[in-house]
Design goal:
With 530 residues, this protein is mainly beta. The protein has 5 domains: 84 residues, Immunoglobulin-like (Sandwich), CATH 2.60.40.1120; 123 residues, Carboxypeptidase-like, regulatory domain (Immunoglobulin-like, Sandwich), CATH 2.60.40.1120; 91 residues, Sandwich (Immunoglobulin-like); 97 residues, Immunoglobulins (Immunoglobulin-like, Sandwich), CATH 2.60.40; 95 residues, Sandwich (Immunoglobulin-like). The protein has 3 helices and 42 strands. It is globular. The protein starts with a helix and ends in a 6-residue tail after the last strand.
Length: 530
């Protein structure tokens, strides 16, 4: 009898929980539309990801309508994709118990494309494999760079097409589509003189991206008929040996152009060679004049590496007799200290090092319960340093490498590791909240909100996006003087360029923040039409 009563009680509890869950269930309804024409977009795939790792997908109907019923309360992100359109993630959605959110509109932009031909100096397709490269402008610490976005092979008729683009301006270039593994016996591609190579050429026909013609495309537009006429360059051969490269292991030598603005660009403009297994020798042909780093790495037992990095200036003459002498990789030790001796859990914070001169050789270490960490196998190069998994509301007060202040994250280890890191953090970061509204006083969703430090220090800029209700929140702000602005549309990072920011400074709200401050700052959005 007792067992029967216990079973009944459990069943009753489960039934009550189910009823409560049904009563608290939420839903989201809306439409997907073309952001140019306003027409409904049917058969778009919508994905809702969020609370309790829930991920639900539905398809929009003939009128672009969609619905997500039976959701648990929590924070979600809504995304939509459809062939011929640019995929989009909407602003975060926050659902409270029993909320029925309606009228959500996701606007998808029709995809653009650029197409054309690549020809040689005679105006005819070239009898060598070519690659078309698409470049998009991007800001890095307030400086605008053209960075490679995607590549596509050029066909035998010299034709290329670069699809699925957002509206904007791009550069298009072409270069040899050669296997980056130059090998120990690399030779010039067939059909070209041995010392004359097609170099990366930007539309319409220049080796200098600053002199290239940008190609603008509107949403849904195809910019066709673009012809890139290739240039050639007198190139040289470099050869040498890797000490210890003939000990029965595959050793790769990599040639990387100095100052490459991204790992992808370094890979496109660089070369690889496999050393001869008998004597460790290597050879590269088709090397254009310029400044490079010649580097190699090889295993030195479980979890250990050997590195060599030689600066190389290539002119008009072949270079032979290069010797790369790999040395054991160094370890970089450090500690994270919490300011004011505030009791706080530092375990799990991660120190990330992005290798600027060695694409792909990034390194990181996770902080232990004592606040200590060691980054293993450091390659001799320059790094950008940042912290990940910093608890909400914390900020970095300072970073020091030996006696050097490296608080902006620039860490030069090209001469090897000669000191340790000490990173001071604080759990007393300030917080700024508010709502972004338009000229009509209605909330504006998706606006880009930027906190601009008066000092213009890169590490102190903060960016976030307003939610569906126009609300925003920026946490973990260091003490100081700031301006805060909201844009309807601005390229990420462009606000760090003083010339971009200057026209908008009069529209900024000013604020002074101290540790643990919590301020509410309403903002009026800067229209993209201004």
């Amino acid at each position: 009898m007792r067992l029967m009563w216990e079973s009944a009680a459990v069943a009753l509890l489960l039934a009550c929980a189910q009823v409560q869950a049904q009563q608290e269930a939420c839903s989201v309804e809306g439409r997907v539309v073309n952001n140019v024409t306003g027409a409904a977009v049917r058969r778009a795939t919508l994905t809702l990801t969020g609370a309790s790792a829930i991920k639900v997908a539905v398809e929009s109907g003939d009128n672009g309508q969609f619905a997500f019923p039976g959701l648990v309360p929590g924070r979600y992100t809504l995304a939509a994709e459809r062939t011929g359109f640019i995929s989009r993630s909407g602003s975060p959605l926050v659902l409270t118990a029993a909320q029925r959110m309606k009228g959500v509109v996701l606007k998808l932009a029709p995809a653009a494309a650029i197409s054309g031909r690549v020809v040689g100096e005679d105006g005819e397709p070239m009898a060598v494999p070519l690659l078309a490269v698409l470049f998009q402008a991007s800001y890095q610490r307030g400086v605008r760079h053209w960075l490679p976005l995607k590549t596509t092979p050029v066909n035998d008729l010299g034709e290329f097409r670069l699809p699925n683009l957002t509206a904007g301006s791009y550069l298009v270039a072409a270069q040899l589509n050669r296997n980056p593994m130059a090998g120990v016996s690399a030779r010039a591609p067939a059909g070209q003189p041995e010392r004359e190579y097609a170099t990366m050429t930007y539309f319409p026909s220049t080796a200098d991206p600053a002199k290239a013609s940008a190609i603008p495309v509107a949403a849904g537009e195809e910019a066709s008929g673009k012809v890139v006429q290739m240039l050639k360059v007198e190139a040289v051969r470099i050869a040498g040996k890797v000490a210890g490269g003939a000990e029965g292991r595959q050793v790769i030598v990599r040639l990387i152009p100095k100052g490459a603005a991204s790992p992808m660009l370094a890979t496109l403009q660089g070369m690889l060679a496999i050393c001869n297994g008998n004597d460790g020798s290597f050879e590269m042909t088709g090397v254009a004049p310029g400044a490079y780093s010649l580097m190699t790495w090889l295993s030195n037992g479980p979890g250990a590496q050997l590195f060599a990095n030689v600066p190389l200036q290539v002119a008009e003459q072949d270079i032979e007799g290069l010797i790369l002498q790999p040395a054991p990789a160094a370890d970089l030790a450090g500690a994270i200290v919490v300011a004011d001796r505030t009791p706080a859990e530092r375990k799990g914070i991660r120190v990330d090092l992005e290798a600027r001169g060695w694409p792909g050789f990034n390194a990181n270490a996770t902080v232990d319960e004592r606040g200590m960490f060691t980054v293993k196998n450091i390659a001799p190069t320059e790094y950008r340093m940042a912290l990940a998994n910093l608890p909400e509301g914390w900020y970095v007060k300072s970073m020091r490498y030996g006696e050097q202040d490296v608080s902006e994250g620039d860490l030069d280890l090209s001469g090897g590791v000669t000191g340790s890191l000490q990173i001071t953090v604080s759990a007393a970061g300030a917080q700024v909240d508010g709502v972004v509204r338009g000229a009509d006083d209605k909330p504006v969703s998706g606006a880009t909100v930027v906190l601009v430090p008066d000092s213009r220090r890169h590490s102190l800029f903060k960016e976030t996006r307003a939610g569906e209700d126009g609300s925003y929140s920026i946490k973990g702000v260091a003490p100081g003087e700031y301006a805060i602005l909201a844009w309807e549309d601005i390229e990420s990072g462009a606000y760090e360029d003083p010339e971009v920011l200057k026209p908008f400074e009069s529209q900024a709200a000013k604020l002074s923040l101290k540790d643990s401050d919590h301020k509410n700052v309403p903002l009026t959005v800067i229209s993209s039409r201004k």
